[in-house]
C-alpha cells in the first residue's frame, strides 16, 4: 500500500504536484480477500478497475478509458480496499510482519489502477467534465483515507508489530517499511481520540477540496489567458518559435495569428527575444498573475484557508507549526535547518543579481533605451549580456538542441551508467492516451532482460497542466511475484511545425535530462515492497538533478548536439562559450527559486491569522532584500507545489537541499579517473543512489556512495558563489 503511506491526504495521493513530481499507486491486493476480489474481477465491466492486460506484464488500457467510468470505479475500488483493510484489522491471529505489514503492502490493487487513469485525466487531459468529478470525489477520497488512518484496530496491530521482538529479525528494508507504516499512522491522526479525531478528518476533507480548487483555478488561467499577436509584432523572435506560435494559434482556431500560451515554455523564450517591451510586460504579467486576477479563479482566499487548516491540524498532533511536522522525517529534520541552508546561499545569490542587473542596465543605457530594468526586461537584457560577455547567442545554441536528438543522448547516458537499452515499441502495440505519446521498451544491454516501459508525452496542449513531471503506472516489486516498471515523462514543449524539428532552450534541455533522471530512478529500482518507493522529498530531487550533469559531457555534446538543418555537430568554440558561461545568470536562477522556497517555509512557520497572502508575500520578500527586478519563480497564487496538495508543502526547499548533494556527488565523478563515466563511481551511483529507492535511510545511502556527508561548499563552487567563511576549515 505504498501510495497510501506517502501521504494520507487524498489529493497528495492522486494529483501530480508542481513542476516535477512522482505519482505512484498501490499495486497488489490482500490475500485475505484475494479469492473474492478475483471472482469479482471477472465481473468488472469497468476497464479502470481491471488488471492491466497485454504484453510487458500488462499495460494500462489508455485507449479504452472513458470519463463516465471514473466515479463508479473510484467508489468500487474504495469499497474493495476497505474490505481488505477490515480483513487485516480484524484478523484474530497475533499480529506479525506477514499478516499486517505485508498484507497492507498487498492491498489496494484496484484503487491503484484507477489512480493511474485519474492521474492522466488530472495532469495530461483535463476537462471541465473531469474537474466536476474531481471536485466531487476529492473530499470523498480524503474521508476514505482518513477512515483507514483512524482504524484503531489496524493501528494497534501495526503498533504491535513495530514494537515487537520480531522487528529485529527482519531485513533492513522490512524494518524500514514497518517504521514508515507506523510513522504514517502516528503522524496522521491515528493517536487522536474523540472530537480531535473527528476534527482531523473534517480538516482533511476540506483541504482536499481546496487543493483541487487551487489547482483548477491555475489551470483555468493558463487556458483562458492566451496572448495572441500578429505578424507585425514578431520582431526579435526566432523562426522556430514563430512557427510553433503560429501552430499553437491555429490549433486554437486563430488563423493568421501567433499564440503565446500561458506556460513557462512559451513565456520564457518570448521574454528572452521579443523586442516589443510593451508586449513583454503583458506576457510577463499574464504569466505571473495566474491565480491572482481578482476573479472567480483567484486563489488568495484559498491560500489563507489552506494555511489555517494545516496549522489547526498539526496543532491537534502537538506540533508548533506545519513545517515542524512536515520536516520531522525528512533529511532536514526541522525548518530551522532548512532555513539555515537557504540563508547560507541567499546573500551570495542576491549579490550576484545586483551584478547582473548592473551589466544589463549598462547595455540598456548604451543603446539609449531610456529604461530602468524591470522584471519583464531581465531575460531580454540577460541575453544581450550573454552575447556581449561570452559572445554566446542562446538562439544559436538552440539550433543544436533538437528534442529527438536529446532523447537519444539520454538513452546513451542510460546505457553507459545503467546498462539500459531503449527500443521503440511498435505503434499500436501499447495503448496510449494521446497521439503525441510514444513508448519504448527498456532492457538490460547484456542479458536482454526486460526492465520495463518508458512513456513520453512531450508537448504542450490544452487540458494538460504546465511544467514537467515524472510518474509511474507500475513500480518494481518482488514480494508478491516480480512486477516490472511502467514509467513516464511528461513535458510542455512547444511542438515544432509539421515536418520540422522541435528546438528547445538550454534550460529546457536540462529539464528534459532532469525528468529522465526520475524515470531512471524508477527503472533502476531493486526493492521488494511498494512502500520502498515512497520518497523523502528533500532527497528524491537529488538523483534527477544529478543526471542534468551528463548533458555537458563531451560524449553527449560531440555526438548528439547537431544542427537541425545541416546535421553538423556543434562547433567546439560554441561549446567552449557554453562552458565558460555555465554560471552566467546564476543569480537570477538561484534567487527566483529560493524566494519561492523561503516563502514556503515562512508561510508554514507563521501564525495563519497574521497572513494576508498578497501582503505577506510582498512584505516578507522586502525584508529579505528581494531584488525588484525578479519575482518568485512560483508566486503564491499559482504555487501548485505547495497549495495544490501537500507533496512539497513546507518542503520546496528540498530542491536546494538536493542541490548540495548534487554538487557534492558531481565532484565525486570529477575526481574519478573516468570522469562522469567512471565505472566504479557509476556502479556506486546505481547501487546506493538509484536502486535502493527509500529502502535505506537517504543519509546512510549517500554516505555509502560518497564515504562522508555532503558539503555545502561544493554547491557554492558549482554556482560560482563565494564560500561562506564558516564553511572554510
Automatic annotation (TrEMBL):
InterPro entries: M3A_DCP, MetalloPept_cat_dom_sf, Neurolysin/TOP_dom2, Neurolysin/TOP_N, OpdA_N, Pept_M3A_M3B, Pept_M3A_M3B_dom. Residues 270-719 form the Peptidase M3A/M3B catalytic domain. Binds 1 zinc ion. Its cofactor is Zn(2+). Keywords: Hydrolase, Metal-binding, Metalloprotease, Protease, Signal, Zinc. It catalyses: Hydrolysis of oligopeptides, with broad specificity. Gly or Ala commonly occur as P1 or P1' residues, but more distant residues are also important, as is shown by the fact that Z-Gly-Pro-Gly-|-Gly-Pro-Ala is cleaved, but not Z-(Gly)(5). It comes from Alteromonas marina. Coiled coil: none annotated. GO terms for cellular component: cytosol. This is oligopeptidase A.
Amino acid at each position: 500500500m505504498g501510495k497510501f503511506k506517502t501521504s494520507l491526504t487524498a489529493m497528495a495521493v492522486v494529483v501530480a504536484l508542481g513542476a516535477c513530481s512522482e505519482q505512484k499507486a498501490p499495486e497488489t491486493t490482500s490475500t485475505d480477500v484475494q479469492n473474492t476480489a478475483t471472482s469479482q474481477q471477472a465481473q468488472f465491466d469497468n476497464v479502470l478497475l481491471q488488471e492491466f492486460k497485454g504484453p510487458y506484464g500488462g499495460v494500462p488500457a489508455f485507449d479504452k478509458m472513458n470519463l463516465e467510468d471514473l466515479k463508479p470505479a473510484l467508489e468500487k475500488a474504495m469499497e474493495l480496499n476497505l474490505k481488505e483493510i477490515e480483513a487485516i484489522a480484524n484478523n484474530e491471529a497475533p499480529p506479525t510482519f506477514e499478516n499486517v505489514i505485508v498484507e497492507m503492502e498487498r492491498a489496494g490493487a484496484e484503487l491503484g489502477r484507477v489512480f493511474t487513469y485519474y492521474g492522466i485525466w488530472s495532469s495530461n487531459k483535463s476537462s471541465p467534465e473531469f474537474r466536476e468529478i474531481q471536485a466531487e470525489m476529492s473530499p470523498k477520497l480524503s474521508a476514505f483515507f482518513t477512515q483507514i488512518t483512524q482504524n484503531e484496530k489496524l493501528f494497534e496491530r501495526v503498533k504491535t508489530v513495530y514494537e515487537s521482538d520480531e522487528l529485529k529479525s527482519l531485513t533492513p528494508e522490512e524494518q524500514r517499511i514497518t517504521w514508515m507504516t507506523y510513522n504514517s499512522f502516528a503522524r496522521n491522526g491515528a493517536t487522536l481520540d474523540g472530537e480531535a479525531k473527528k476534527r482531523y478528518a473534517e480538516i482533511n476533507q476540506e483541504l482536499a477540496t481546496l487543493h483541487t480548487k487551487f489547482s483548477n483555478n491555475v489551470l483555468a488561467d493558463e487556458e483562458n489567458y492566451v496572448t495572441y499577436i500578429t505578424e507585425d509584432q514578431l520582431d526579435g523572435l526566432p523562426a522556430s518559435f514563430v512557427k510553433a506560435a503560429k501552430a499553437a494559434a491555429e490549433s486554437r482556431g486563430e488563423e493568421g495569428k501567433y499564440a503565446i500560451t500561458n506556460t513557462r515554455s512559451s513565456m520564457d523564450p518570448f521574454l528572452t527575444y521579443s523586442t516589443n517591451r510593451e508586449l513583454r510586460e503583458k506576457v510577463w504579467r499574464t504569466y505571473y498573475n495566474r491565480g491572482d486576477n481578482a476573479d472567480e479563479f483567484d486563489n488568495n482566499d484559498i491560500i489563507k484557508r489552506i494555511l489555517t487548516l494545516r496549522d489547526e491540524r498539526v496543532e491537534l498532533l502537538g506540533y508548533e507549526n506545519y513545517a515542524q511536522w512536515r520536516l520531522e522525517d525528512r533529511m532536514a529534520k526541522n525548518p530551522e535547518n532548512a532555513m539555515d541552508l537557504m540563508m547560507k546561499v541567499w546573500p551570495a545569490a542576491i549579490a550576484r543579481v545586483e551584478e547582473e542587473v548592473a551589466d544589463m542596465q549598462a547595455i540598456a543605457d548604451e543603446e539609449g533605451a531610456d529604461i530602468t530594468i524591470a522584471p519583464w526586461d531581465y531575460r531580454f537584457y540577460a541575453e544581450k549580456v550573454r552575447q556581449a560577455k561570452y559572445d554566446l547567442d542562446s538562439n544559436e545554441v538552440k539550433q543544436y538542441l533538437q528534442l529527438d536528438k536529446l532523447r537519444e543522448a539520454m538513452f546513451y547516458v542510460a546505457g553507459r551508467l545503467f546498462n539500459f537499452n531503449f527500443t521503440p515499441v511498435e505503434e499500436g502495440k501499447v495503448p496510449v492516451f494521446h497521439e503525441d505519446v510514444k513508448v519504448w521498451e527498456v532492457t538490460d544491454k547484456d542479458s536482454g532482460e526486460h526492465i520495463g516501459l518508458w512513456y513520453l508525452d512531450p508537448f504542450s496542449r490544452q487540458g494538460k497542466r504546465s511544467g514537467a513531471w515524472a510518474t509511474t503506472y507500475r513500480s518494481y516489486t518482488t514480494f508478491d511475484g516480480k512486477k516490472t516498471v511502467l514509467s513516464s515523462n511528461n513535458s510542455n514543449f512547444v511542438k515544432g511545425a509539421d515536418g520540422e524539428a522541435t528546438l528547445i532552450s538550454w534550460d529546457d534541455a536540462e529539464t528534459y535530462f532532469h525528468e529522465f533522471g526520475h524515470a531512471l530512478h524508477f527503472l533502476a529500482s531493486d526493492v521488494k515492497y511498494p512502500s520502498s518507493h515512497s520518497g523523502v522529498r528533500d532527497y528524491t530531487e537529488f538523483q534527477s538533478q544529478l543526471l542534468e550533469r551528463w548533458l555537458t559531457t563531451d560524449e553527449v555534446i560531440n555526438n548528439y548536439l547537431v544542427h537541425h538543418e545541416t546535421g553538423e555537430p556543434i562547433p567546439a568554440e560554441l561549446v567552449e562559450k557554453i562552458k565558460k558561461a555555465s554560471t552566467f545568470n546564476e543569480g537570477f536562477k538561484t534567487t527566483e527559486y529560493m524566494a519561492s522556497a523561503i516563502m514556503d517555509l515562512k508561510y508554514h512557520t507563521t501564525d495563519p491569522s497574521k497572513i494576508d497572502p498578497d501582503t505577506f508575500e510582498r512584505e516578507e520578500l522586502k525584508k529579505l532584500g528581494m531584488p525588484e527586478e525578479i519575482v518568485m519563480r512560483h508566486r503564491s497564487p499559482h504555487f501548485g507545489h505547495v497549495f495544490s496538495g501537500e507533496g512539497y508543502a513546507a518542503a520546496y526547499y528540498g530542491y536546494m537541499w538536493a542541490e548540495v548533494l548534487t554538487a557534492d556527488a558531481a565532484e565525486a565523478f570529477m575526481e574519478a579517473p573516468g570522469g562522469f563515466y567512471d565505472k566504479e563511481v557509476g556502479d556506486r551511483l546505481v547501487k546506493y543512489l538509484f536502486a535502493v529507492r527509500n529502502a535505506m535511510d537517504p543519509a546512510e545511502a549517500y554516505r555509502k556512495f560518497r564515504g562522508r556527508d555532503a558539503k555545502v561548499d561544493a554547491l557554492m563552487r558549482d554556482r560560482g558563489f563565494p564560500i561562506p567563511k564558516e564553511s572554510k576549515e
